[in-house]
Amino acid sequence: MSRILVVEDDPAIAALLSDYLAHAGLKPETCADGLQAWQLFERAGPWSAVVLDLMLPGLDGLQLCQRIRAGSAVPILMATARIDEFDRLLGLEIGADDYLCKPYSPREVVARVRALLRRAEGRLVGQAATELPGTGGFSHDEAGQRLGWRGQWLNLTPVEYRLLRSLLQQPGRVFERATLLDALHADAFRDVSDRVIDSHIKNLRRKLEALLGQATAIQAVYGVGYRFTPPLGA
């Protein structure tokens, strides 16, 4: 059964979300404090997904999201009353996979969580991979939603997976940020600056450099966007 960590300091909302998630066949656990939630995440894992409020005592939602994302690709849904673009953009930049603004329907939360779980579970299926031509050895497991290089799979968030998949499908093409943003197909990314792409590209570069052992194959094109170039010696 999928375990969902619900971090929400409003007892009524936490109880409501917990009831709906449990009714949907999931196993929710709630926490009202950001610092305690971080300790619970570390101590009582693994978790299938996290539903995270932004305004929390102890450690706010942005800080908690950043800590979680630094060491885990667990899907994160941010649910909050702070709806201004800065907060939405910042939340997505530091690694949230989806964003839902209060007031929201608990049914919508369940639907978003299920969608994140389907994508995450798909990455674990492990079907046969297809080598991507012109990429210097990168492979794509479409059923499992995984990308790898020479048999080594990258540990990617759903957003990172979709970005890298787009770049690998057309090596050498320069993608504008707005085009990459459209490729995410996520409601959470509507009405936010396309600069949110820059933060995710930064994380992708770090992971690719660790895998390839050389400078990243994702190159910035000033004033336009990004392109993928096969690694040297591939």
Flag low-confidence runs.
none
C-alpha Rg, in Å?
18 Å
Order of helices and strands: EHEHEHEHEHEEEEHEHHEE
Beginning-to-end CA distance, first to last residue:
42 Å
**Care to count the β-strands?**
12
Question: Shape, please?
Answer: elongated
Q: How many structural units, i.e. domains?
A: 2
The CATH class label of the largest domain is: Alpha Beta
The largest pleated sheet is described as:
5 strands, parallel
CATH architecture of the largest domain: 3-Layer(aba) Sandwich
The portion of residues forming beta strands comes to 15-25%
Provide the residue-averaged pLDDT: 84
Which percent bin holds the helix content?
40-55%
SSE-based structural type = alpha/beta
Q: Write out the strand line-up for the largest beta sheet, numbering strands in chain order.
A: 2-1-3-4-5
Query: According to CATH, what is the topology of the largest domain?
Result: Rossmann fold
Oligomeric status: single chain
DSSP helix count?
8
Looking at this structure, what is the CATH superfamily of the largest domain?
A: Response regulator
